[in-house]
Amino acid sequence: MSKNLVIIPTYNEKENVEKMIRKVFSLEKPFHLLIVEDNSPDGTADIVKRLMKEFPDKLHILERKGKLGLGTAYIAGFNWALERDYEAVCEMDCDFSHNPDDLLKLFGAIENGADVAVGSRYITGINVVNWPLGRVLMSYFASMYVRIVTGMDVRDTTAGFVCWKREVLETIDLDKIKLIGYGFQIEMKFTAHKFGFTIKEVSIVFTDRQEGTSKMSGGIFNEALWGVLKMKLNSFTRKYERND
Ligand SMILES: Nc1nc2c(ncn2[C@@H]2O[C@H](COP(=O)(O)OP(=O)(O)O[C@H]3O[C@H](CO)[C@@H](O)[C@H](O)[C@@H]3O)[C@@H](O)[C@H]2O)c(=O)[nH]1
Fold first, then answer.
1. CATH number of the domain enclosing 108
2. Residue 165, domain member (yes or no)
3. b vs e for 155-183, b when ≥16 Cβ sit within 10 Å of the residue's Cβ?
4. Where does the record place the Glycosyltransferase 2-like domain (predicted)?
């Protein structure tokens, strides 16, 4: 069995999902793939189930009743992985904004000793293609804001292309992660940082999706803005002790 799992959350990704699954399985390293599907009205799940017959054992689906948010989709996926023997788990979008070829770099960073590997848009300038200037600036300054509030030395704090060593997911108590949108990505990294895990940023280029639409909303942005302050305040009373 592959030791490495890729988790892809999907909501209305019928244009991308088959292409993405085939691409991941064509990479030179063997990965398993878990699709966390939120009952997409466009029939994404049916495409995945058809492909599961072609890729038995390595393509899996976790179906939920409806659109419950990206953060809880990943938590469900992480818990699924922890019930099995995977040694590292990577989050990735379905829409090719994350280049699946970069999975090799991210899992490679974990093999080379990082506890968390972040596919980062902001360590060598700003590597974002096809986003409107407003969104680039918002994302860039949001990452800066988070860095200042949290004191965490990570340039791309909202990045959603991230690999986690199993031990990190076992340690950070996934039930305590409360934010669900961009804030989810921040809270996961911040918690790992507070537990003393090493976070390595790996430079990637993020290209805006060609097919389908983003599911993020203004509410999710606000959640990140206020949620980060609340998260920082709560961190003063929480104990971050590892059982080594
Ligand atoms: N299962 C499930 N999947 C979802 C949901 N919402 C979004 N997704 C899936 O999550 C992935 C990302 O969704 P987008 O809506 O395209 O996200 P985005 O706005 O481009 O945000 C990306 O970049 C942010 C940083 O700029 C990241 O913070 C974020 O995690 C994500 O990678 C896609 O595969 C999409 O189908 C949901 O409620 N449920």
1. 3.90.550.10
2. yes
3. bbbbbbbbbbbbebbebbebeebebbbbb
4. 6-166
Atom in ligand 1 nearest the alpha carbon of residue 98: 32
Q: Is the distance from the beta carbon of residue 36 to the nearest atom of ligand 1 less than 6 Å? A: yes
185 lines ligand 1 (CB under 6 A): yes
Beta-carbon contacts of 62 under 8 Å, excluding residues fewer than 6 positions away, are 34, 35, 36, 37, 76, 77, 80
The answer to the question of residue 243 being in a domain is no
Residue 115's Cβ-count burial label (10 Å; 0-12, 13-18, 19+) is buried
Chain position carrying tokens 């000793």: 113
pLDDT of residue 214 exceeding 80: no
Give the Å distance between the CA of 93 and the centre of ligand 1: 6
Q: Tell me: the pLDDT tens digits for 77-104? A: 999 999 999 999 999 999 999 999 999 9
pLDDT tens, position by position, 3-62: 999 999 999 999 999 999 999 999 999 999 999 999 999 999 999 999 999 999 999 999
Q: Give the range of the structural domain holding residue 32, as residue numbers without chain letter.
A: 4-235
Contacts of 118 (CB under 8 A, 6+ apart): 154, 156, 159, 161, 162, 189, 199, 200, 201, 202
164 φ/ψ angles, rounded to the nearest 5 degrees = -125, 130
Q: Is the ipTM of this complex over 0.85?
A: yes
**144 lies in some domain:** yes
187 is written with which tokens?
């809270």
Mind giving me the DSSP string for 64-126? Answer: -SS---HHHHHHHHHHHHHTTT-SEEEE--SSSSS-GGGHHHHHHHHHTT-SEEEEESSSSS-
Residue 223 CB less than 6 A away from ligand 1? no
Number of structural domains found in the chain: 1
